[in-house]
Amino acid sequence: MGLSTKKYIFLFLFATFVLVACDTKTTDRSIGTDVIDNPATLNGKKTKMPKIEFEETEYNSGKITQGEVLNYIYKFENTGDAPLVISAVTGSCGCTIPRSYPTGKIMPGEGGEIDVEFNSDNKWGEQTITISVATNAMPAATMLYIKSNIVVPDNMKMNN
C-alpha cells in the first residue's frame, strides 16, 4: 500500500466523519411560536403585550398539622392586549405540585386557574413555598406563594 493510497483512505474516512458529525437533521431544535410569542421589539418599544394578573399571589393557610395536604386555586386574568401563553408552572420543592393550568392561548379579557397541591409531610414551623409561573408576558415569570405554620402533632414529637 503506497503513500497515496493511505492518503485516499484517510481523506475518505475524514470526509465520512465530517458528514456524519455535521448531520443536523437528527436533532429537532425548533421552538413553537406559542412559547416565544413575545412581541417586544428590538428598539425597546413594546407593541401589544399580554399581562397576567392574579386575584391574589399569596395563600396563607395559617396553622396546619404536619402531613396535611393543601389544595389551592390561583385565579388570574389576561389584562393585556395580546394572547397570553403559560409555558410552565413549577414548585420550589417536590412538596408542591401544579395539578392543572391552561395550556393554550388565553385571549385578552379571558382568565383561568392554576390548581396547586402542597404536601406538608416532613415539614415543620413557618414555611413559604414558591410557585413560578412562566409566560410570554413581561416579566416572563410571576411568583405565587403558599405560607403555612406547620405544627407537629404531639404523638410525632421525639421524647428526650
TrEMBL record:
Residues 1-21 form the signal peptide. This is DUF1573 domain-containing protein. It comes from the Bacteria. Keywords: Signal. The keyword Signal applies. The lineage of its organism: Bacteria, Pseudomonadati, Bacteroidota, Flavobacteriia, Flavobacteriales. It comes from Cryomorpha ignava. The keyword Transferase does not apply.
